[in-house]
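Deliverable D4.2, example record:
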Amino acid sequence: MSVSIDIAGLRPEGAVVVPSPLAELGMALHALSEPGHHPGLQGWVTGVTARLDPHLADRMCEADFLWRTTFSDLFLPCAGIPGGGALPGGTLAEELDLLDKLSDEQFVAAALEFTCAFPYGTPGPGPLADEGLRRRSLELAAARGPQQVRFTERLLADPPRIRAWLRQFLRDCDEAFFAETWSRLHHQLAADARHKTDLLRHKGLAGALAAVSPAVTLDETAGRITVDKLGDGRTATADGGLLLIPTSLGWPHLMVLHRYDWQPVLHYPVGSPELAAPPTVEQLALRMTALSHPVRMRLCRDLARSAYTTGELAQAHGVTAPEISRHLGVLKKAGLVTTRRRGRYVLHQLDVTVVARLGSDFLEGILR
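Output generated by the structure prediction step:
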């Protein structure tokens, strides 16, 4: 499972690294709504929440489906500007102007994308033009409670009114807490953008992507970027460019905007506690499968305490040596067991560090 970006024909100057204040505000709203996704931001979340005006907090809940469950493309409006070459604005005000340039159809489809399960990577009419999609939007909104029904009804009936509401809400968030946060974060993001731009200049796209995340790989021969994620999708730069947008508040989320007819965007975390080589989704699946078997679980109990030979494990568990070898092979393939030779004996032992990390690795993998 992965998201791929076809970059055939992408010119060297077509890949641009640039911070986005609006994208970072979206990440801030997500962290405030889902602090469990961002344990490293607990102090910041607590501080902002403690001084948040109750009226603004209520408004934050009114449309939190735009940022709570995941991250709406509305926070990257430059990607939706026709031509595929627009960049984020240098200020929040400039980015809100870009948001105003999206058509009503783009705005509504992006706003209802996650909660109403619209087609994402393929062309087609939206709910403003398709009565069937409009009914489906309201039905799915009803399953998420009266608050989303009311918002969806207003959005479908009067998109300009909701656009104005969202713009004012984001400006109020900026005044209440984000301007202070951005003044602290944008220096780190600008420094990261300069570093990645330097890599692009001297080591090419492969060098820059390697610094973005080990989960991002480039096949230069095929002209394709692959992002290891628990999901499938594809997009292409076509005649446009590729945006790399850093976030200080986003870890562990590594997101790919791959909406049909929008410019592809890699929205990646910087300054994160990410491991140098986090496991791939396939490796995570191997490890979870390996640990799910009762015999292998019992083997892990022994191997966590000491190193054993295959014969010792067979005798202790009352099974044949070939069967123990088969189970050990599964554990070793998953990277959970290490081996070392002592004379003519081969000793096996559980890699406790890898197993201890599995919980956080799993969480990062599914949130990536």
